[in-house]
Amino acid sequence: MSKNVHTEAVNHLFDAILSLENKEECYRFFEDVCTVNELLSLSQRYEVARMLRAQKTYLDIAEKTGASTATISRVNRSLNYGNDGYDMVFERVSVDDDSES
Q: Which residues form the signal peptide (predicted)?
């Protein structure tokens, strides 16, 4: 069973994130809040999820992102059995992602 993340501290963090207005503000905030490795890990998981939704193989994903098969498997489990957060975001940013790919 997972830990409850619905805490006052997490609410404050999400309020702070929702106050950010552009990518530059995101960079400034997340570079202060996260270590470089934490930020790179988060972005790697997001890229893994994008590639899984695009039907890429684990081998292709591992080669392009450097993610371990364990990480790819965890992200895949979230995509299939999670709270649909990735899919919600993919729907909202699909136009931007398609133009950059």
A: none
pTM: 0.85
pLDDT tens figures, 13-25 = 999 999 999 999 9
Burial of 38 (0-12, 13-18, 19+ CB in 10 A): exposed
**Quick check: 24 and 32 in contact, CB under 8 A?**
no
List the structure tokens of 82: 């999670």
Tens-digit pLDDT profile for residues 61-73: 999 999 999 999 9
11, amino acid identity: N
**What φ, ψ does residue 55 adopt, rounded to 5°?**
65, 25
* Closest to 53 (Cα-Cα) out of 101, 100, 90, 15: 90
